[in-house]
Design brief:
By secondary structure, the chain is of the alpha+beta class. The protein has helices at 26-39, 125-137, 148-161; strands at residues 46-48, 58-63, 66-78, 83-84, 87-90, 93-99, 102-103, 105-111, 117-123. 25% of the residues lie in helices and 31% in strands. The strands form 3 sheets. Strands 1-2-3-8-9 form a 5-stranded antiparallel β-sheet. It has a two-stranded antiparallel sheet with strand order 4-7. The protein is globular. It catalyses: N-terminal N-formyl-L-methionyl-[peptide] + H2O = N-terminal L-methionyl-[peptide] + formate. Belongs to the polypeptide deformylase family. The active site is at 133.
C-alpha cells in the first residue's frame, strides 16, 4: 500500500472519463489499497482513482469514521425534491471552497474486489461525496456545477493557484 500524490486541476487525467474495470487483478487490488490508504487522512471525504493518476472507475470514501471503496460505481438514485447548498471543496482543487448544489440523498451501485454487488447510499455529506466522486470518474470537477457568477469567481481563484 502507498499514500499516493493527488493530481490537481490542470492535469488532463482529471478531465478524462475513467474506464470500467473488467478484470479484478493484482493491479486493481493494489489500486484499492492505495485509494484506501490515501483517503485515510483527516479532512478527506473521498478520493477517485483518476485523482491519483489511474483512469479506472473506482473511488474510496472516509465519512463518519467509515472508510470504504466501490468499483465501477454508477449513481442509480438521487433525491429529486431535496437539495443541499453547502460549500464544497476538492483535493484536486486545494484550498478552495465554493457553494455547490447537490441532491440531499444519493445511491450508488457497483462491485467489490470479489465482483459482488455493492450498494452505497447516504444523505448530506455521504450523498455529496458519492456525487462528487462519480463526477470525477466521469471527467468532471465540482467547479463545473457552480452557478455562473460563482464559477467565474472560482475560475479566477483556480488560475491564481496555477
Amino acid at each position: 500500500m502507498a499514500m499516493r500524490e493527488i493530481r490537481t486541476v490542470g492535469d488532463p487525467v482529471l478531465r478524462t472519463p475513467c474506464e470500467d474495470i473488467t478484470d479484478i487483478d493484482d493491479r486493481v487490488r493494489s489500486l484499492v489499497e492505495d485509494l484506501l490508504e490515501t483517503v485515510d487522512t483527516e479532512g478527506r471525504a473521498g478520493l477517485a482513482a483518476n485523482q491519483i493518476g489511474v483512469g479506472l472507475r473506482a473511488f474510496s470514501w472516509n465519512i463518519d469514521d467509515e472508510i470504504g471503496y466501490v468499483l465501477n460505481p454508477r449513481i442509480v438514485e438521487l433525491s429529486e425534491d431535496e437539495f443541499q447548498d453547502g460549500d464544497e471543496g476538492c483535493l484536486s482543487v486545494p484550498g478552495l471552497w465554493f457553494p455547490t448544489r447537490r441532491a440531499w440523498y444519493a445511491r450508488v451501485e457497483g462491485i467489490d474486489l470479489d465482483g459482488k454487488e455493492v450498494v452505497v447510499e447516504g444523505e448530506e455529506l455521504m450523498a455529496r461525496a458519492l456525487q462528487h466522486e462519480v463526477d470525477h470518474l466521469d471527467g468532471k470537477l465540482y467547479l463545473d456545477r457552480l452557478e455562473p457568477a460563482v464559477r467565474k469567481k472560482a475560475m479566477k481563484a483556480v488560475r491564481e493557484l496555477l
